[in-house]
Amino acid sequence: MSAWLEDTRTSYDTVAGNYAEFVRDSLQREPYLSGALALFATLVEAGPVADVGCGPGHVTAHLRGLGVDASGIDLSPAMVELARRAHPGARFETGDMTDLTLPDASLAGLVAFWSTIHVPDEHMPTVCAGFRRVLRPGGVVLAGFHAGEGTHLKTEGYGGLPMRVYLHRRSPAVVSAWLRDAGLAVEAELLLDAGRSALLFARRPA
User: What are 65's strand-pairing partners?
Assistant: First the structure.
C-alpha cells in the first residue's frame, strides 16, 4: 500500500469515533447536500449504489432511507466497524478507491462525498477510470469535494487527535476534466459555501 494510503487509513482509524460524532447530523444541517442526494436517488432509481469513502455510513444510511439500495466502502477498518454497528441493515466493506474490486458495470450509481480530497492528483485519473468501469451505461456519479486551489498537511483533527493526511482543494473545472477524460459526461455543477465546496453530477454514457 502506498504511503499516503497507509497514512489516510491510520489517521481515520484514529479519529473514527470523533469523526462519526462530527458528521452525525451533518445532512440535517446542510439542506443543499441532502437535496443533492435526493436528486441523485431519483436518477439511480433502485440502485445498486456504492458510497465510496463512506466513513461511518451516514450518507449510505441516508440514501437507504430514500429507497436506494446503497452500500458503503471505506479504507478505514475502524470506520467500517462503526458503520456496521450504527446501520446494521446496510452492507459495509473495507476497500481502496484506487483499486475497486467491484465488478464491471455493476452499479447504477456511485457517491464520493468528500472522499477524494486526500487522493494525490496523479492518482485521480485512475480513481475516475475506476468509477466509470464499475458504473452501468447510464449510471451516475455524485462527487463532492473542497473547491479552490492548494494542498496542506493536516496533522491534527476531530478532538485534537493525531492525523497525517494531505487535503487537496480543486476547482470544479479540474475535477470535471478528470471525469471527462475517464469517459464520463459531466451534467451539473453546484457550488456551496461561497464557492468553498462543490458537487458534480456525471454520467456514464448509455
Answer: none
Residues 6+ apart with CB under 8 A from 176: 186, 189, 200, 202
Using alpha carbons only, give the angle 3, 21, 157 rounded to the nearest 5 degrees.
40
Instruction: State which H helix or E strand residue 188 sits in.
Output: strand 185-192
- Please write the tens of the pLDDT for every residue from 13-54: 999 999 999 999 999 999 999 999 999 999 998 789 999 999
At 156-192, the pLDDT tens digits run 999 999 999 999 999 999 999 999 999 999 999 999 9
CA distance 56 to 41: 20
Assigned CATH class of 3-203: alpha beta
Is this prediction's pTM over 0.90? yes
